[in-house]
Amino acid sequence: MSLLVSRLGRAAAARGWARSSGLGSAALSSVRPGVSALGSVLLGARIHTSPEQSLQYGWLAYMLGERASKKFTEHSKVFTVEGNLSSGKGKLAQQIAEKLGMKHFPEADIHYQDRISGDGQLLPEKFNGFCNLEKFYTDPRSPDGHSYRLQSWIFGSRVLQYADALEHLLSTGQGVVLERSPYSDFVFLDAMLKQGYVHRRCLDHYKEIKEISISELLPPHLVIYVDVPVPEVQKRIQEKGKPYEKKVSPSYLQSIEDAYKRTFLPEISESSEVLQYSATAAEDVEKCAGQVCSAGFCVRPELRPRDHHWRLPVRQDLLRVPSGECCWGKLGDTARVLLAVGAARGHGQSALLAAGDTARVLLTIEDSQGTWP
């Protein structure tokens, strides 16, 4: 690697010397064959640049003072839109992204990696887990384990897409809106289990993989659930769905809805805000965007209890706070959190925590009983 860098450096120097000497590309090639072409490649090489925002991001930019947090706005958030099949979640996700200036990520499928890499050409089934949706809807109880193989492959695609969305947010500052996420993917496997499509041990294996896959990921700020009754979902599938999708059973659709309402929404509400819309309400994007703002996502929140995953944890004993709740420093250079700490004798104390790249901590303490220890 060092040899390559050295050769690239010499090529750049040769090109610069040729320009200063008034030599053309032909003369440069005659001096050293191949240097001209190599110099052209070198001039095209630069720090990774976001194609969406044309913002430099890389270790050199970081050393020179570039900070992603400087690009953060009130819409630098992660939204996910959830719902049953043919619930209209894709249209709503795209409209909200356009309305708020966020990046839309369509739902990940088994070909997600194919679409974002290389020439974008879809690879054969043998390179995508030996699975496809058509076979699932045609024979969901296939004895070769196809149903679980399909869902585990889609889960992997969702993890990759969610990681790409986080990278986009943290490197450009632009918020993202995804259709479904790895946090909600389990509703399909839960429905498969209830319908007898997979074995119980498949669910146990899935939970183990899920735990080690997303345990360190940052959860979404907001989850939007589009609630469409199963009869309406069935009607939409019969009208606009693909031929093989029309074979889906109503009981499977009902099991998906049950998993959403009984398990996913209660669990995700512990870490994310949740908004629910009916099929009719989801069509009014202006109203939906307004409710997103009214939920507090169009302002810079100083401290949102459900956003603590997005803040740097600060150990209370290191700050020598005698009592009170654990405090969190908001992620970013300029973020500040005002903490309210109760003293042991009932006297109020306040601490202003500023968390930056160098982990600076500024404490302002008011203690009527004496000096801060």
Automatic annotation (TrEMBL):
Signal peptide (residue range): none
Record keyword Mitochondrion present: yes
Taxonomic superkingdom: Eukaryota
Subcellular location, principal: mitochondrion
InterPro entries per record: Deoxyribonucleoside_kinase (IPR050566), DNK_dom (IPR031314), NDUFA10 (IPR015828), P-loop_NTPase (IPR027417)
Localization in the cell: Mitochondrion matrix
Cofactor: FAD
UniProt-listed Pfam families: dNK (PF01712)
UniProt-listed GO biological process terms: mitochondrial electron transport, NADH to ubiquinone
GO cellular component assignments: mitochondrial matrix
Key words of the record: Electron transport, FAD, Flavoprotein, Mitochondrion, Phosphoprotein, Respiratory chain, Transit peptide, Transport
Domain (Deoxynucleoside kinase): residue spans on this chain: 79-271
Oligomeric and partner information: Complex I is composed of 45 different subunits. This a component of the hydrophobic protein fraction.
Function in brief: Accessory subunit of the mitochondrial membrane respiratory chain NADH dehydrogenase (Complex I), that is believed not to be involved in catalysis. Complex I functions in the transfer of electrons from NADH to the respiratory chain. The immediate electron acceptor for the enzyme is believed to be ubiquinone.
Entry's family note: Belongs to the complex I NDUFA10 subunit family.
Protein name per UniProt: NADH dehydrogenase [ubiquinone] 1 alpha subcomplex subunit 10, mitochondrial
Organism lineage: Eukaryota, Metazoa, Chordata, Craniata, Vertebrata
